């Protein structure tokens, strides 16, 4: 090739049918996994749901497992950030205040990521991806239990319920939203967050004799 000739530009990667980018494919996959079950859903099922060919989907993702991993990360990443922040000591904010804030913000995270959280709560450890997600859930339980223990040590919470049990009950209340909460329903996110936080901590707060 002479110095006056130019190499042809590399072909641009096809983006697939408009409206079906990677995020749209992920949303459709999560909806289908929740409706049919992850193990019972194939990439062919997803292609049919989207009106695409399987090769078109593989322009954006490599496998069904990748979609599952992305969905579980979507459910866990923000909640992990919320719990991590609350676990750090903060000037003017004791463990009890940070614990209340975790519960409130957990409601916000669940509402914002409800389909992915629903999928997370259904995994049973049938693959390495699911086992890793379950390990992250255990980490969250442990951090929340430690925060409960700190609030007990402050004298803000009753001390006759094991912190690990309190952690499970708190997350259980929040996670129950996946079964009934609808963004267009009778209760908005703020009302639900207030109700769960109030009910949880009015029941846990120490009452002087």
UniProtKB/TrEMBL annotation:
Compositional bias per record (Basic and acidic residues), positions renumbered to this chain: 1-11
Domain HTH tetR-type: 19-79
Location of the DNA-binding region in this protein: 42-61
Tree of life domain: Bacteria
GO terms, molecular function: DNA-binding transcription factor activity; transcription cis-regulatory region binding
SUPFAM superfamilies membership: Homeodomain-like, Tetracyclin repressor-like, C-terminal domain
Presence of keyword Transcription regulation: yes
Region annotation (Disordered) ranges: 1-21
Keywords, comma-separated and alphabetical: DNA-binding, Transcription, Transcription regulation
InterPro entries reported for this sequence: DNA-bd_HTH_TetR-type_CS, Homeodomain-like_sf, HTH-type_TetR-like_transc_reg, HTH_TetR, KstR2_TetR_C, Tet_transcr_reg_TetR-rel_C_sf
PANTHER family linked to this entry: HTH-TYPE TRANSCRIPTIONAL REGULATOR BETI (PTHR30055:SF234), HTH-TYPE TRANSCRIPTIONAL REGULATOR RUTR (PTHR30055)
Protein name: AcrR family transcriptional regulator
């Amino acid at each position: 090739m002479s110095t006056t000739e130019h190499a042809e530009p590399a072909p641009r990667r096809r983006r697939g049918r408009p409206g079906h980018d990677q995020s749209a494919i992920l949303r459709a996959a999560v909806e289908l996994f929740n409706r049919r079950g992850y193990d019972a859903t194939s990439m062919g099922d997803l292609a049919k749901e989207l009106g695409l060919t399987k090769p078109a989907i593989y322009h954006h993702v490599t496998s069904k497992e990748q979609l599952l991993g992305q969905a579980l990360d979507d459910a866990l990443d923000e909640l992990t950030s919320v719990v991590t922040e609350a676990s750090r000591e903060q000037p003017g904010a004791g463990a009890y205040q940070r614990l209340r804030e975790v519960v409130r913000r957990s409601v916000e995270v669940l509402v914002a990521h409800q389909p992915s959280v629903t999928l997370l709560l259904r995994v049973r450890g049938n693959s390495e991806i699911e086992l890793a997600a379950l390990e992250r859930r255990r980490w969250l339980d442990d951090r929340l239990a430690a925060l409960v223990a700190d609030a007990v040590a402050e004298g803000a919470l009753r001390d006759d319920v094991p912190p690990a049990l309190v952690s499970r009950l708190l997350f259980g209340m929040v996670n129950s939203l996946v079964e009934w909460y609808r963004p267009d329903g009778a209760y908005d996110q703020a009302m639900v967050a207030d109700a769960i936080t109030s009910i949880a901590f009015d029941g846990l707060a120490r009452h002087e004799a």
